[in-house]
Amino acid sequence: YAWDANEEYLFKAMVAFAMRRYSSKSTTQISDVLLCNVTDRVSFWFVVTDSSQNMTAVPGSVVEAAIRMNRNRINSAFLLSDKTLQFLKITSTLSPPVEPSTPVWLIVFGVVLCLIVAGIVFLVVAGIQQRKKKNKESTERENLEEKGEVTVTVENGIPCEALDLKAGHINGVFAADDERFTSL
């Protein structure tokens, strides 16, 4: 950060502005802000004097309150933040980090648990519906068999094609249309 005479002037002007805004009767001028021990790392301390009272220093508590009240304007003037522009003995204006009322892990745990419960409920309901459907089909088959209308053959738990036993059934694969070929 290039710190030169213009930056010093801007800082003094911002402190004078803060003092004027804090105390409406204050007539703080830029010349009333004195910078001391300025280093290359832009580190210094400053004093605000009151020229109306024969160059006496303004109490530190008043200066702190004025800077705390206008700190965002000072930070904005230098395009800095409370992390980069630090005033010793003046607490930061940043709000503390927001902590959720419930821990994040608890929220994730709740979501995963809800998904698992929803999956289990879905599987149970689907099983009940499938069992009802199977029971309904078996009762319909039994009713048809009792009436003697259709004979249903069940092999390996799978209902096969209904056969009309009175008329018979011819398997077309083994029926030969003509006897041209020699039998083996």
UniProtKB/TrEMBL annotation:
Tree of life domain: Eukaryota
Ribosomal protein keyword on record: no
The keyword DNA-binding belongs to this UniProt entry's keyword annotation: no
Topology of this chain in the membrane: Single-pass type I membrane protein
Pfam families on file: Collectrin
Coiled-coil portions: none
Key words, A-Z: Cell membrane, Glycoprotein, Membrane, Phosphoprotein, Signal, Transmembrane, Transmembrane helix
Protein name in the entry: TMM27 protein
Lineage: Eukaryota, Metazoa, Chordata, Craniata, Vertebrata
